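WARN no homologs supplied; continuing
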Amino acid sequence: MIASNTASFSSSLPDLSRTPTVDQVGIEERVDRLAKRSIKKASKVHALKLALAMIDLTTLEGADSPGKVRQMCYKAKHLHDAMAALPHVAAVCVYPTLVRIAKDELKDSGINVAAVATGFPSGQYPLNVKLDDTRYAVSEGADEIDMVISRGHFLAGDYQYVFDEIAQVKEACGAAHLKVILETGELGTFDQVRKASDIAMHAGADFIKTSTGKVTPAATLPVTLVMLEAIRDFYHATGKKIGMKPAGGISTAKTAIQYLVVLRETLGQDWMTPDLFRIGASRLANDILMQLAKEASGVYQSLDYFSKD
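OK structure emitted
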């Protein structure tokens, strides 16, 4: 389990007047250059396996059932038994009511159980309900909590409310570590994304996360770069390493590798680990497996050769 930044958060809202303005053109140009970076075969195989190990395999649908979660957990443990030397995914991510099932299925596997909480995906719930939601998920065995910020309060400029809410959810997490979802598709501008990132990190986030996957746009490379730069600046100011999780819409191996290139060029080798970088996805694993099979054999296999869940 990832070490949580327990008691590492600030006691007060940071001075947001010192949050830098984001150069949107510069961000987009840098992403465009990095996304075109070519990778040789040996490095590509390493990158594909690393991306696989960083996946939070996710099911967050109203139709989720114990059977579906058990099947996903089996997939998490047995990505493709016909292929040797594969890592397992980092975690499975489910609703709080299904945490206990996932925890039992993944016992002794080294795979964490993450739970969305705090009124996911809208966040439109009273604070006491959000805290109870968090405590319940932790009591059921969640290793990680993925919370959503109150975007309405944030967009209204009530930053102290957002800060205090994150800090209280962090406390409710206990030993579980906290990923704070900004829902960047609703924040409007890169400057808003940067400001929300700074608030979340100062309030105690162990990870900052782009999206719930329920809003379009979800994760994008430019938004992720803005958040990675916020993490870099926070690390230089405090010495604390905060993790990053893009989530939503990342479904191809090619895109996953582009995220790893941006990560490596922004934060360096220390962040190239599931302890500090995750990819929230439901379909990505199979595309990576197909690409690994192609690198090994020289020919593509059909996606039908890999289990769907």
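DSSP finds eleven helices and eight strands in the chain.
OK
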